[in-house]
Amino acid sequence: MANQLTKELEIMFEEYVEGYDSACIISNEAEKSFPDPQSMQRAGDTFYKPMDYMATVTTGLDISGATPTDLVQRQVPTVYRSPDNVLFSLDAKELRDPVHKTRMGKAAATRLAAEIDKNLYAAAAARASIFVKKVGAIAWDDAATAEALMLSRGIGTGSERKMFLNPFDHKDVAKDLGNRAYMGDINKSAYERSKVPDIAGFSTFRTDNVANITVTGTVSGTTVSGNQSHTVTAMTGDVPTDNRQMVLNVAGANIANIKAGDAFNITGVNAVHNIDKSDTGQLMTFRVLSVAGGGANLTITPSLVSSGPYQNVSAQAANTAPLVFLNTATKPANIFWAQGAVTLDYGRLAFPSGQGAEVMTATTKQGVPLIMSYNFNHLTGKVTCRYTTLYAATVLNPEMVGTILANQV
Question: How far apart are CA 204 and CA 191, in angstroms?
Fold first, then answer.
């Protein structure tokens, strides 16, 4: 009976892995890696990923007096989440019907895959710094605007760009395409099956994820408190500097209402082309990651770098410059990014076999390490199963990630 039970659970695990592969939509499009487990253990499940170098151009024949470009090794911390698990039991009566095992295995796969996609989607939505605010329903033109904003900043010209539409806004894009009389089979598919093609240079995906960006509170009158910018450095003490973010000091009667997730522009601070540093004429969008000091100290992303090879804005944040908040209605985000901007890093836990519970491991087509452990208690007549996965969802470069937020006011 023990061998028969083992075989049945192995079959359940195989079907679980297959179901997991088919359920990963967003995570399948992120960059992936599998750091060395021993190194991760010694580093406290934190490791650092390098960002690209940038250079400064010096003009002239004789450049003997020129200042060389500083080589600053920018690194981003990547931290594993606590493991995600599905835990369930089957008693001796339920074990008589194999349908219970196979259906629960598939349910575990669907749930864990959805959790990874949800957390990846939420991470991208929270740090997306290219912001398309739309008053009214989303349309094809909004994706074209997103592409234009990326191109004006020199983002994604040599890499694939991807867009993920939540189900409600995907419906509106399909409606927009379906109403067009000149697109032949494309608008027919949009009308009949709510199917949209790749849009404006983006590989486009419909997702069932709904990551809401909630409406900002009463924040009128918020201004910058003192001239501010960020200096890119390699280290802060003994730890690599996270140059994706900085603390912005603000003032105003309503700053206590600012919250994590808010999006805003600073008057006079435009985004620049990432390579040639020309002013795009478009305001840079910043996101609030956390709030301290009663709202006076905002940790924001991206940081404001107003000079040097890593310049990303046209000017520093000037004293008393107004903040203009953009998220004026709670609505689900649509995410887009350039390849390499968002990463998933998978880990493996060391579950020993032969010490009570039996353990099986597998790796999915996406490279996700999965563990199933199970134990039969003859006193209770139950088999307890645990499904586990370990990963980190990281926005490596928020300036290459954006969101379209429709139906704003």
Answer: 17
104/95 Cα distance (integer angstroms)? 12
CB neighbour list of residue 209: distance below 8 Å, 6 or more residues apart: 26, 117, 118, 121, 164, 166
Query: Strand, helix or coil at 22?
Result: helix
pLDDT tens-digit series, residues 247-297: 999 999 999 999 999 999 999 999 999 999 999 999 999 999 999 999 999
Q: Cβ distance 286 to 301 under 8 Å?
A: yes
Q: Treating both helix axes as pointing N-terminal to C-terminal, what angle do 140-152 and 167-178 enclose, rounded to 10 degrees?
A: 110
Q: Are 406 and 137 in contact (CB under 8 A)?
A: yes
Report how far residue 367's alpha carbon sits from residue 178's, in angstroms, rounded to the nearest whole number: 37
Instruction: Say which amino acid occupies 85.
Output: N
User: Number of helices (H) and strands (E), helices first, in the chain?
Assistant: 6, 23
DSSP label of 400: G
Question: How many Cβ atoms are within 10 Å of 379's Cβ, its own excluded?
Answer: 5
Cα–Cα distance for residue pair 254/221, rounded to 1 Å: 7
Flag residues of the chain having pLDDT under 50.
Answer: 1-3, 182, 186-195
What stretches of 57-117 adopt beta strand conformation (E)?
75-79, 84-91
Contact by Cβ (8 Å): 344, 245:
no
Question: Which DSSP category does 69 fall into?
Answer: P
